[in-house]
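Tutorial sheet, problem 5. The three components below are modelled jointly, 859 residues in total.
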Amino acid sequence: MPAAPWRLIIEMRIVHYLNQFFAGIGGEDRAETPPDARAGAVGPGLALQQLLAGEAEIAGTVWCGDGLVADGPDDVLNAIINAVESFAPDVVVAGPAFGAGRYGLACARVCAAVTRRLGIPALAAMAPDNAAVELHRHEVLIVPTAATAIGMKDALAAMARLAPRLGRGEALGPAAVEGYLPRGRRMNARAAAPASERALQLLLARLDGRPFASEVELPRYERIPPPPPVTDPARMRLALVTECGLVPRGNPDRLEWVRASKWLTYPIDGKQTLAPGDYEVAHGGYDAAFAAEDPDRLVPLDAVRELVRRGELGGVLDAYYVTCGNHGILGQMAVHAREIAADLRRQHVDSVLLVAT
Amino acid sequence: MHLELAAFLVRRARLGAPAAYDEGVLTIDADVVRSLVLRDPRIAEARLELAHPGESVRVLRALDAIEPLHKPDGPARAFPGFLGPPHTVGHGRTHRLDGFTVVQVTEFPFPASGVQAFEEGLIEMSGPGAAYSGCADRVNLLLLLTPGPAASNADYDDALRRAALRVADHLAALTVGRAPEHVEVFDHGGDDGGRRRIVWVHQVRAQGPMVQSFLYGHEISGMLPTVLDPNELLDGALVGGNYKTGSKTPTYVHTRHPSLLALAARHGRDLHFAGVIVARGHHENEFMKERSAHFVAKLATLLRADGALCTYEATGNTHIDFMLTVQALERAGIPTASVVHEYGGPLGEDPPLVDVVPEAIALASSGGIDRRLTLPLVERVIGGDRLAHRGEPARGPLDLPIQELYAATAVMNARGALAVDY
Amino acid sequence: MAKELERAGFPTATVTSLAAVAVKVGANRIVRGNRFSHPFGRPELPPAEERAWRVELVRTALRALRTPVEGPTVFEPPAP
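Model answer (structure tokens):
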């Protein structure tokens, strides 16, 4: 059969980011290589192009020394982004960086910047325990690879599989299905069996000594170093902050009692106690009757005033802060706390009594 | 105990007379139903509505949903303690109307705040919400009730619960003399034959009026964990009165829980269903939470459990009760696996669980309950014009988290929803 | 919220009935309050005694604020 007289024009354009080593310039000794670019594929990009076949074309390759991008000045990153943009790509791929920490960081930074500034989808490839993963996986799509270049073939295959789909603007399915590292988002899917049945299967596997995979990973909590103690409470200005949803009767500012979207302050100056009848509870998670009888049971103003009178406490801020901890979305609660902290700083507060429910 | 549970499928219901069940069609005599309800002067008025799967219907102010049960051979009655004396059930024969529920739709007569305040839970009969909504996959008789002279919300609640159970019993009794679709046999007695003994730990909500569960006709806030034969649940020993909607377990789930069915299906084959431990959650402080958790572990040990399948109802600080229970079981040498629902915010970026223990290593996810849905405009709204908690017009369109759908957590378990990493 | 306030540098006494949770989450100065619905309340006592107890509980919070800690530490109020 005679060859076709026409050549297929491949529409999808990819830019490939590499470091100085994979671009063929040199090793660690050339880590300060300034950014540069060339049309077409370079180094491992040649094999990548083969795998992409007719689906996409590596329009250009951009490289830079790891030492400059991982923690270098911003103008280096700017130059890289400009070079990427000059090839008008539909998608950018970076790496594979395998276990190389600075290369991984460089790939992640480039991908994040490309998406943030140019709106172009990007993916990076590196080993799951590369330091860059924990730092960037929330914002950058990362495909897992082996720890060393022994895994080059598989790494390129994974990149070739996902890059065109990103370039077409396709939404990807779950991480486990598509083969990328979880980015810290969990969305709902549907299994064939009810959760109870699946839990029973996990239990039987445990009892049999067979391997099993929990569907929910246990979290690791961040440790905050404790602030130094107050030297002398008799000179201290205390602020009262509560998650218990205590608001003036009528809830005038409509504090929501589930998943509260705001925090509020209410004045307490001149008050020696919180009077029953003046307050109500905007919190859907517990019985409010006891607090209604005496709101000091939630926000202990009477006791605080007593201690100020006795000279054991310097003073208390003239307003208390309130939000509602019921079903509080944790990220939202942290935002509230940060804003309250800023407010406290402005008012020269030394310490906080937080009532958590 | 040996129980034969005869299922009579309801494909359609209609109002008419005389009341009858025939070949999948339930004819409901509205006058009979109304008079059963209005026997109690604490209810002033009752109207009937029907909702079928697939209809463009949204139901508000829904409280409990009950799958009708009737025991044709006396003296034992289904829903013991309410319809009959609080004697042990779970044996003999029971008829159930499969695919049908009786639902009370009403406002409470007295204002309430805090945990007792009503939280709206929408029943969506079609559209994207139906997959997450209780009652969406069945035919529903909605009893639209108007309160009469009740002394308190709890008093009214008692009236409407008993009324709905009377109606459920009456409707299920229409199947007497008819041939069932199928009959299931439940018998968990006898020797375990060396098979692994598994208990189901069923933590339910019991904080006070409107957030309550009932065992043999009495509320369980003061209850220490206790042991039931699975058959007792099938016969309606545990009735739901928890109106905290997305995370509630309506009675029709208590009488046919996915955990019970999963264990019963394998009983006698690769495990021995050694019993159900029912415990309340939401204890007021750590002392009471720990006390309950250790009681569960002790009961499981006394039942010689080799493993425990654990589930819980509701959310908030009851996660702590649950995780302490899991921990106590594990430390007592009883491996566990649990179903947990997840949080995580609208995009699933926040931590999924409110509380965990390091021993909780085997978890099945029933999905993220605070991901959001957009519900369309519907043709018909039953139960009110505006959502109770936000005041939005109920016809829609609505944007809300999944947990504002009726019994969403229970539905998500049964339908296989789970959260996965993206 | 305790961790964000501490992260901002404020010594924070977190009063809660769920001290074990606060430990797990990593709040550093934790004071064990009474019940969930009334951490500063003891409604079973006569009012004057309840108030005196409440003063003791706030005193415990002040003690927590002036005590150096290494990590999550639970401060117990005097026994009722």
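Marking note: The two ends of chain A are 79 Å apart (CA to CA). Full credit if you identified this.
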